[in-house]
Amino acid sequence: MTQTTIQQIFSNYMTKQPLFINKKALTTSYTPENVPHRDEQISQLASILTPVLKRERPSNVFIYGPTGSGKTLVTQYVASELKGAAEKNGIPFHIVYVNCKMKRVADTEYRLLAHLSNLLGKEVPPTGLPTDQVYKTFFGALDEREGVVIFIIDEIDALIKKVGDELLYNFTRINQDVKNVKVSFIGISNDLGFTENLDARVRSSLSEEELIFPPYNALQLQRILTERSNLAFNKGKVADGVISKCAALAAQEHGDARRALDLLRVAGELAERENAQMVEEKHVDAAESKVDMDRIIETVKMQPKQSKAILYSIIYLTRGEEKTCLSGDVYDEYVRICKIIGLKPLTQRRVSDIISELDIMGIITSKVISKGRYGRMRDIGLAISAEIYQKLLNFLKSDFGFD
DNA sequence: AGTCCACAGGAAGGGCAGGCGA
DNA sequence: TCGCCTGCCCTTCCTGTGGACT
Q1: Which residues touch strand B (CB under 7 A)?
Q2: What's A39-212's CATH class?
């Protein structure tokens, strides 16, 4: 390559109009100025929360809806608008947001309380204190405030499934333990049947109001994407059909707006990388498999060695074909792999739990079957495409030092 | 109808790392 | 330093179970 051509590449790069103006507009953390297709939910939530402006405690609210249906966005949007209105009128009002799915942050009772206390300005160490002490610190931190405090607890079902509903029971009684503030809760959950398993007292007092968020349809997704892509991309850099394709793909996945935005963002990144003039439909196709692949490979990377060995056993037995295997065989294979890589095998009981975890992560599918006289066991298959299978296999092999 | 397989999955508790207060 | 507390990962022990076989 001559020096002139290199210079040309640089100058092309500098003079060419970039695809993106503001990539952040396509991320989930971005809060847009308005939230389309959620007017009803916004006004419902706003009217539930308005007592704040009269210095009164609003009802507790439970919000349900599938992933990417705008629950978190709407809640944060309404809360911040309310905060603006409260500030204008000199009314003390605080919002505390926490997501219970954040590993090692708020996925246990202790961690949630410690995290909330930290957000309220009272430091609590990540471990080491008795729980009642943490409750005391939390109440203390709360009582130093004035007016109304609203806790937004996102993915609350994940937490309660893990720690039980006693925590929520304590929350329902919180207003008896503090003097200076009035406290309300907004619980956000993907699981519609979540409150059915709750203690009746907890259910009635925590879900004084309920809001349901339906999934977006393809047309609604299209409008959301158009709005965001106008913010994110330079004019004329997105080909016709790209947005509707992203919307259609995401609509198939239960109207998940988050996925639609991911697809568009990744398609843009892929187009940028190959120096394309604009984002085209082929980039969306490539983005679709990349989004899935990245999610799965990243999830597997974070797993401990034991889980990887179990997953490898399943992959080995099914060989990526549409074949399934049985839990007993997986355990035998896993023990064999452990011997090869010098790992102490876990018990069958623990392996059974890890198989369930892999199932929840969406990497495998498993169902309990009975073979009558020959016992009851789990039938396990892979839940990933052939392309991802190959990539995952290569990753695991290199991780274990196999060739 | 009763038996029996090969597990699933609940309950209890052990061992460990790590923080706090005395 | 010690005793006590926590979460986390794991084992041990146990009961439950769908359906083929007798």
Answers
A1: A 125-129, 326-329, 331, 348-349, 352, 355-356, 368, 372-378
A2: alpha beta
- Phi/psi zone of residue A236: left (φ > 0), alpha (ψ -120 to 50 degrees), beta? left
Please choose, from the candidates A197, A290, A258, the residue with its C-alpha nearest in 3D space to the C-alpha of residue A67: A258
Going by the DSSP 8-state scheme, the letter that residue A347 receives in this structure is P
- How far apart CA A115 and CA A276 sit, in angstroms, is 45
Highest CATH level, class, for A303-400: mainly alpha
With a cut of 90, say whether residue A220 has pLDDT above it: yes
pTM, two decimal places: 0.78
CA–CA gap between residue A14 and residue A6 (Å, rounded): 13
Topology of domain A216-295, CATH: Helicase, Ruva Protein; domain 3 (1.10.8)
Stated length of chain A: 403
Range among A5-9, A225-229, A298-302 rated most confident: A225-229
Q: How far is the CA of A253 from the C1' of C10 (A)?
A: 37
Helices (H) and strands (E) in chain A, counts: 17, 8
How far is A267 from A264, CA to CA, in rounded Å?
5
Owner of token pair 């092309």 = A12
Query: Which among A148, A171, A149, A150 has a CA at the least distance from the CA of A159?
Result: A171
